[in-house]
């Protein structure tokens, strides 16, 4: 396979924004330090700034959100350029073209609202900045299936699909990478990784905090758009895809796309939406908001391997802990031999995807004593911190090298929107839940046909955070929000 050319400049729009401050500048210093990044880095924004102000912004960003290294920062500072201008002004893109100098294969990173994607790409095209270029676009990539299709059509007016890198920082996390590696670097899972042995799968993304002053933003997205359509469906894709027949990035994306195509569109009857008590008092939130801060869904994949296996996915704000876990529950033994209680735990496989890495197998072992009675044990394959390479360092480095492995292709994005599209209109009831609990009780009823939500592990000490923490609501509290 022919070598893919490396980008010879990086242009990032939104250089003075929140994402750049919290994520991009620390990632750029890491790329300079560890990967030897040495190409021009051109920040673009409309802030009335100059280059020195951008450098000071970068310094403050890395001190607060990264690991500051004076030598690496000095090298980064020498690479920085700055263009100040309106994205709707053609002169802004003429300045970008001048700042690129001799660079012929730039990477343009759009860390800006999706409503500006088309404007910026069109401006770059008219200024001859897209020849042999790559473009990275941030999520959310559309608000529903129709808008995602329209956005894809707009980008394809100026760029081939091979030049579009749709970024999902979740896929750049070390624990998520480990899920993919662990599945296909070992053979012992393969014989049981199917409907004959797997009874159900649970995926949990829990956040202990609320909307953190971003109420106006959250009113536009909600839990389903914010994390389920992208992060969590991507995890399900990695968990269930077939092995690619070679290491070529497009083969990996082919297999993920096949899984998305096999996913059944969500049924509103299989969705539970919740809103934590107090959300409507947040700044920027409507007093009658119907936006969900919690969502639990039951998903099916209509493939030969996974037919009829339920996938239960939940995510929410103001839950008891911060954690992302996958829990794969296997079937019970076909018949009891020992005097085990009827509710003895079946075998399981747990993948902890954040904030730390954990892979363990749940089994039964004999309890000490004269009786043939068992107890649950965890066979821990790996347990360690989440890793030092941050997602944006990995993803921007991959994009510079033209490696598309961790970026979403058009068909996969549209299929993921197709899966959630039937439940985006807010037609299912909205249930209130208390902060610090695991969401509304109705989520327990959703999973009841296949048991209960399995407790996730506390990041600090590995103990289980109870999965059934539902205190009685205050007297007179509504069961559902209308």
In short:
The chain is of the alpha/beta class. It has 12 helices and 17 strands.
What does this structure look like?
- α6 links the parallel β5 and β6.
- The N and C termini lie far apart (58 Å).
- It is built from 12 helices and 17 strands.
- It is globular, with a radius of gyration of 24 Å.
- α1 crosses α2.
- By secondary structure, it is α/β, with parallel strands linked by helices.
Q: What is the beta-strand fraction?
A: 15-25%
Radius of gyration: 24 Å
Indicate the structural class: alpha/beta
> What is the topology, as strand order, of the major beta sheet?
14-13-12-11-7-10-9-8-15
Order of helices and strands: EHEHHEHEHEHEHEHHEEEEEEEHHEHEE
Contiguous low-pLDDT stretches (5 residues minimum) are 471-482
Helix proportion of residues, in percent?
25-40%
State the helix count.
12
Please report the distance between the alpha carbons of the first and last residues: 58 Å
Shape: globular
Mean pLDDT: 90
Query: Biggest sheet, in brief?
Result: 9 strands, mixed
Structure summary, number of beta strands? 17
Task: Map the helices and strands.
Elements: E1 9-13, H1 18-34, E2 41-45, H2 51-65, H3 70-79, E3 80-84, H4 90-100, E4 106-110, H5 117-126, E5 134-137, H6 145-156, E6 164-166, H7 174-185, E7 198-206, H8 215-240, H9 249-262, E8 271-276, E9 294-299, E10 311-316, E11 323-330, E12 348-354, E13 356-366, E14 374-385, H10 391-401, H11 410-420, E15 430-433, H12 442-447, E16 456-457, E17 464-465
Parallel strand pairs: 1-2, 1-4, 2-3, 4-5, 5-6, 7-10, 8-15
Antiparallel strand pairs: 7-11, 8-9, 9-10, 11-12, 12-13, 13-14, 16-17
Helix pairs in contact: 1-2, 1-3, 1-10, 6-11, 8-9, 8-11, 9-11
């Amino acid at each position: 396979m022919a070598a893919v050319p490396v980008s010879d400049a990086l242009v990032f729009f939104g250089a003075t924004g929140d994402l750049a401050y919290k994520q991009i500048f620390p990632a750029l210093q890491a790329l300079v330090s560890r990967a030897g990044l040495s190409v021009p880095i051109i920040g673009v924004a409309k802030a009335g700034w100059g280059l020195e102000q951008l450098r000071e912004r970068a310094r403050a960003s890395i001190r607060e959100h990264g690991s500051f290294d004076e030598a690496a920062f000095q090298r980064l500072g020498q690479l920085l350029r700055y263009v100040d201008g309106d994205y709707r002004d053609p002169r802004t893109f003429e300045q970008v073209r001048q700042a690129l100098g001799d660079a012929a294969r730039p990477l343009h990173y759009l860390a800006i609202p999706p409503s500006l994607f088309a404007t910026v790409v069109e401006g770059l095209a008219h200024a001859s900045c897209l020849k042999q270029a790559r473009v990275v676009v941030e999520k959310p990539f559309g608000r529903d299936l129709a808008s995602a299709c329209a956005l894809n059509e707009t980008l394809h007016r100026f760029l081939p699909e091979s030049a579009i890198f749709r970024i999902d920082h979740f896929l750049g996390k070390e624990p998520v990478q480990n899920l993919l590696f662990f599945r296909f670097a070992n053979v012992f899972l393969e014989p049981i990784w199917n409907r004959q042995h797997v009874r159900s799968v649970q995926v949990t993304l829990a956040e202990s905090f609320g909307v953190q002053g971003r109420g106006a933003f959250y009113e536009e997205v909600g839990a389903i758009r914010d994390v389920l359509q992208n992060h969590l469906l991507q995890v399900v894709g990695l968990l269930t895809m077939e092995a690619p027949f070679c290491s070529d990035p497009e083969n990996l994306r082919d297999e993920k796309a096949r899984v998305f195509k096999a996913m059944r569109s969500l049924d509103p009857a299989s969705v539970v939406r919740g809103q934590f008590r107090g959300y409507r008092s947040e700044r920027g939130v409507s007093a009658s908001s119907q936006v969900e801060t919690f969502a639990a869904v039951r998903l099916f994949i209509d493939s030969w391997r996974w037919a009829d296996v339920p996938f239960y996915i939940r995510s929410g704000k103001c839950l008891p802990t911060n954690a992302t876990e996958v829990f794969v529950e296997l079937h019970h033994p076909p018949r009891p031999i020992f005097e085990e209680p009827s509710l003895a735990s079946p075998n399981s496989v747990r993948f902890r995807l954040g904030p730390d890495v954990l892979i363990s197998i749940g089994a039964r072992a004999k309890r000490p004593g004269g009786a043939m009675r068992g107890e649950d044990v965890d066979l821990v394959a790996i347990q360690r911190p989440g890793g030092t390479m941050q997602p944006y360092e990995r993803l921007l480095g991959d994009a510079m090298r033209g490696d598309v492995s961790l970026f979403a292709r058009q068909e996969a994005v549209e299929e993921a929107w197709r899966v959630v599209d039937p439940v985006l209109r807010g037609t299912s009831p909205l249930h209130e839940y208390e902060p610090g609990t695991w969401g509304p009780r109705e989520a327990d009823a959703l999973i009841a046909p296949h048991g209960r939500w399995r407790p996730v592990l506390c990041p600090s000490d590995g103990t289980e955070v109870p999965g059934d923490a539902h205190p009685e609501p205050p007297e007179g509290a509504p069961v559902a929000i209308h």
